[in-house]
């Protein structure tokens, strides 16, 4: 990372949801590498064992200059979100960057056959969970001088821009947050609070395996002939957006691998 990145992130506290794997995990590591002597990381996810592993991995690589707090946490539970800030250790409460990464993807259900439990879980995580997390952290940002200061980074998806067959529920959830994000940016325009969206296309993560009900062989076959983005690719862009000087807002980023031009515009190598 460039030295300006390290300088602009120096001393900041970064909160990442869904940090136990995939893009969340890579984002935590990328932030730590960007400013390895003064950063504070709050890593939240349901799999606490994974968070401890990531914490140890970061400290082995960059040393103990990066302070890390991990917590078992489920963004889909409003009571947990509501207690989060007050339960943080004092030295981690002055959050500067919120990365709303946690998300849930269902299978390929289509109306009218979408089960109620799938509808509930997708919406509770991808929509109300993201909104509740944003509402929990924004007061910290808004109390700062000159109208407030901080970054809200939404991990979106091409699915929020282009609906596709078999993805109605997931696409609807991501489109909902895209509308919320666009409105939030306008509502906070008089402050120095930056509202940022990073929307990837195809990324090789555990998401695909989950979507195929744990069938890794079928999930891996989905990418045959493709060279998808990696979680590290997306993490680098997230860190880049957070590390710009205060007056620069990388408001909206769409990322594709080279073979992709849209949600369903894909080229498969022979």
Automatic annotation (TrEMBL):
Oxidoreductase listed as a keyword: yes
Keywords, alphabetical: NADP, Oxidoreductase
Under the GO molecular function aspect, what terms does this record hold? oxidoreductase activity, acting on the CH-OH group of donors, NAD or NADP as acceptor
Top-level taxon? Eukaryota
Q: Oxidoreductase: is it a keyword of this entry?
A: yes
Output the PROSITE patterns linked to this UniProt entry. Answer: ADH_SHORT
The Swiss-Prot or TrEMBL record describes its family as follows: Belongs to the short-chain dehydrogenases/reductases (SDR) family.
Task: Output the PANTHER family linked to this UniProt entry.
Answer: ALCOHOL DEHYDROGENASE
This chain's protein is named NAD(P)-binding protein
Q: Give the organism the record lists.
A: Clohesyomyces aquaticus
């Amino acid at each position: 990372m460039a030295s300006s990145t390290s300088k602009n992130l120096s001393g900041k506290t970064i909160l990442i949801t869904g940090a136990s794997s995939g893009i969340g995990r890579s984002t935590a590591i990328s932030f730590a590498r960007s400013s390895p002597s003064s950063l504070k990381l709050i890593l939240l996810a349901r799999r606490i064992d994974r968070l401890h592993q990531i914490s140890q991995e970061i400290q082995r690589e960059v040393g103990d200059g990066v302070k890390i707090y991990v917590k078992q946490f489920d963004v889909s539970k409003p009571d947990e979100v509501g207690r989060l800030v007050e339960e943080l250790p004092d030295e981690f409460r002055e959050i500067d960057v919120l990365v709303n990464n946690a998300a849930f993807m269902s299978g390929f259900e289509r109306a009218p056959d979408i089960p109620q439990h799938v509808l509930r879980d997708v919406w509770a995580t991808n929509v109300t969970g993201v909104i509740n997390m944003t509402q929990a952290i924004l007061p910290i940002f808004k109390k700062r001088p000159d109208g407030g200061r901080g970054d809200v980074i939404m991990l979106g998806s091409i699915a929020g821009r282009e609906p596709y067959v078999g993805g109605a529920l997931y696409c609807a959830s991501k489109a909902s947050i895209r509308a919320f994000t666009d409105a939030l940016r306008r509502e906070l325009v008089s402050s120095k609070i930056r509202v940022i969206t990073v929307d990837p296309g195809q990324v090789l993560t555990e998401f695909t395996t989950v979507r195929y009900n744990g069938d890794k062989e079928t999930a891996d076959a989905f990418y045959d002939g493709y060279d998808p983005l990696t979680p590290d690719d997306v993490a680098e862009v997230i860190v880049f957006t957070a590390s710009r000087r205060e007056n620069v807002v990388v408001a909206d980023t769409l990322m594709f691998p080279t073979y992709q031009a849209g949600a369903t515009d894909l080229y498969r190598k022979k």
